[in-house]
Amino acid sequence: MNSIYQRLLCLAALLAVLATGSLRLTAQEEAPPVFSLKTAVDYAMSNSNAIRNAQVDILDAEQNVKERLSTGLPQINGSVDFNHFLKVPVLPLPEAFAMGDPDAPTSIAFQLKNSLTAGIAARSMLFDGSFFVGLRAARSSGEYYNLQLENTQRTVRSQVTRAYFPVLLLKTNVVILDRNISNLEKLLNETNAQYEAGFVEQLDVDRLVLSLNNLRSQRDQVGSQAENALRALKFTLNYPMDEPLRVEDDLDKLETSIEVAALTSDIPFQQRPEIRLLDKTIELQGLNEELQKSAYLPTVYATVSGQYQFQGNSFSDGFWAPTVVLGLSASVPIYDFGGRKARVERAKLATQKVINQRNDAQRSVQLEVLNARATFTANNDRLAVTKSNLDLAQRIYDVTQVKYREGVGSSIEIVQAEQALYESQANYLNALYETLVAKEDLFLALGRN
């Protein structure tokens, strides 16, 4: 009996351990991933469809080079033809062929019933000006798509950062509102106790209740906005909408300072992928001009082919006839009524358009950098002012609370100090958010990754 009892106890203990392990495993599985800004950017770099498409373009460009290269190499083809004539065609013979012989044939066939031909042919380019220009263009297009990938990565990084900051802003705002609600609830409880003791009026209690209700309503609204911002971040990351996600960075701890060189140095135009993309486009347009000019050059191709032909009325008798042919062909352009010249001129005009676009892009980058520098400087100055105002409003609020608890202050002063504190908190958070965005915009304008 004791043995059975001990076995039951062991089984129960084992089940308890398994249940505990299962609960821990479930808790671990349900714990949502926590993304810092860097983690979010890394995730987007691996999962963004825009980046995936840019990478596909690079792979496609590599295959385009191989395809273009193959056109200049020998092309080898095999062939097999079989014909069985149900009725062999015949030609009538003139009477003179009979030479008076009544048994002489009156017709003749130049084809037997079965014909089988197997052959192999090779054709190779000896000279074609368009081939070499096209090959250079195909290789340059690979570099072009690499630049496009870099530009896409910068764009995705900027999109993730812009989607990440609002989540932090609203998360921080929720924390501040919860702290304000807790402080106000504590003050309301103290005021209720003073009211019941006859030291304050009902009006003092009502003012605090009204303020607390407004604060709770604001907290609910900010909480809803935080959920919307988190969904927007998931969309930007290409993260599953139905899976949980948390952010870990603290808005107050993000670096807002920037080195002086970023605000005063010469504009690094070549760090912008857009400028380098246009430079590469100009290079490709130059190759297009060369391609159109190559149409004035001759093309030379060599061919070699060999075949075996079998003919016979049956496969048991017949004959095989080998054939080997070596050939050379050349095509020399002479005159096409100005078509080639027009294509060359159009290629030159297309190049000029890209040059004009590059000039406009450079001026646009200059304007973007100057505006970004001015915006960051203004927002950074405003951040310093709002931080000072927040510290001052917090001191005023603390002193007002002390005066109110000691009976030398009024509830009106509390409410006014409270509103000033909440406004200062909101101004500081907005200034901090705008400074961080302005810093990101400046880095983006300077072409930094």
Q: Could you characterize what this model shows?
A:
It is a single chain. With 449 residues, the protein is of the alpha+beta class. It folds into two domains: 51-72 and 129-295 and 338-449, Outer membrane efflux proteins (OEP) (Up-down Bundle); 74-127 and 298-332, Outer membrane efflux proteins (OEP). 65% of the residues lie in helices and 14% in strands. Strand 7 and strand 8 form a beta hairpin. The longest helix is centred in the middle third of the chain and has 68 residues, at 129-196. It is elongated.
Core attributes:
449 residues; alpha+beta; Outer membrane efflux proteins (OEP); 2 domains; four-stranded antiparallel sheet; two-stranded parallel ribbon; 9 helices; 65% helix; 14% strand
Average pLDDT score: 87
What count of domains describes the coordinates? 2
- Write the CATH fold name of the largest domain: Outer membrane efflux proteins (OEP)
Please give the count of helices.
Answer: 9
CATH class category name of the largest domain: Mainly Alpha
Please describe the topology of this protein.
Elements: H1 2-30, E1 34-35, H2 37-47, H3 49-70, E2 75-84, E3 90-92, E4 107-109, E5 114-127, H4 129-196, H5 202-237, E6 246-247, H6 261-264, H7 273-293, E7 299-314, E8 317-331, H8 339-405, H9 411-445
Parallel strand pairs: 1-6
Antiparallel strand pairs: 2-5, 3-4, 5-7, 7-8
